Amino acid sequence: MSDVEKYGLDLHCTMMLEEYQQVQPALERLCRWAHEKIRSSVRDAGLMITACESRVKTEASLAGKLELKGGKYAFLSDITDLVGVRVITLYSVDVDKIAAIVENLFTVDWANSVDKRKSHSLDSFGYNSLHFICKVPPEVYQDPECPQINDYSFEVQMRTTLQHMWAAIYHDTGYKSDVEVPQEYLRNLNRLAGMLELADDEFSRIRTGINDYRRKVQSLVASGHFDDVPLDGDTFRSYLSLHPFDRLNHSIAVVNQAEIHEISLMPYLEVLRYIGCRTLGDVERIRKDEGDDAYRMAVHQIGGTDIDILVSSIGLQSLCSVTLIKQGGGQKELEKMYELLSGPSDYNAHRASRVLQQAVLLGIKTN
């Protein structure tokens, strides 16, 4: 008695199971290659996924499939899910983008591929995956040691994280349960499925809206319509991409023939809000109106020193200090500004006192 005869299958199915044992190494190699090819291609396309999973159907699982449906398969190669890859995305709109990648990588058997998202059944949400049945064309990849790689199909499932979560829950509590689930529980499961489907769609709409907003902001910033742009993390980052403080920094650096070391200016977002900036137009007005006094303050700080490296925040920090002083800010307000930049420190009081003294010497007064 062979080791596959233990499953009690008919001769035809037993022969297919024996063939499976022979080609299993090739299937394992196909699985690894397809998994890595899809994963790397999705990454190169800049798409965010939560998981990329793969597996080769186990012998026991194949035996169970043959026991139920063995008569419909003439050859082992007719079974399309011996190898499976599943790609799980955050957003439903990305499923089609990943599908396009898969279509370009492999030969897709459209007759056996299924778009389950077109189902309108109430309990279909968790199975709204897009399923492609694929083969690897020899011109894309072939292995002389495993020529069967190009003969066998594999399945690629593409679904969202919420769809995947729902499928796992439904599989655990639903149709494969040994105990028939009462209608009231099935109804509640289907209600939950509807909520998750709405959430899936809403997440995609929100992301699309945010991306549209960012594109609009970038266009406004590029065109110089700063008063129309609220000051927030995205808009400030776009504004900084224009290098608005470079000219002031270089003017200051020339005094000591210093080099400028670039650092992130994003920590100054909270400082700018603290001194009253609500739009990029407010920041731009400070840059233009207070640039001369900011230059004088920075030069006063480094003058007579041998400092030959300056950080790229020197201009913006001087602008914020001058603006705060002209608004009537004193020791307490300047300490708060430095705390926003670098956290609580006893040194903040010393810095604030020194800057106030410099402002007096330079004649920088409250407006």
What does this structure look like?
The protein folds into two domains: 161 residues, Beta Polymerase, domain 2; 130 residues, no CATH class. The protein is elongated. Helices cover 55% and strands 10% of the residues. The strands form two sheets. Strands 1, 2, 3, 4, 5 and 6 form a six-stranded mixed beta sheet that branches. Strands 7-8 form a two-stranded parallel ribbon. The mean pLDDT is 89. The termini are far apart. By secondary structure, the protein is an alpha/beta fold. It contains 13 helices and eight strands. The longest helix has 41 residues.
What is the topology?
Layout: H1 11-44, E1 49-56, H2 59-69, E2 83-89, H3 93-105, E3 107-108, E4 114-115, E5 130-135, E6 154-160, H4 161-173, H5 183-223, H6 233-240, H7 246-256, E7 259-261, H8 268-274, H9 280-289, H10 291-302, E8 309-311, H11 314-326, H12 331-342, H13 347-362
Parallel strand pairs: 2-6, 7-8
Antiparallel strand pairs: 1-2, 3-5, 4-5, 5-6
Helix pairs in contact: 1-2, 1-3, 4-5, 5-6, 7-10, 10-11, 10-13, 12-13
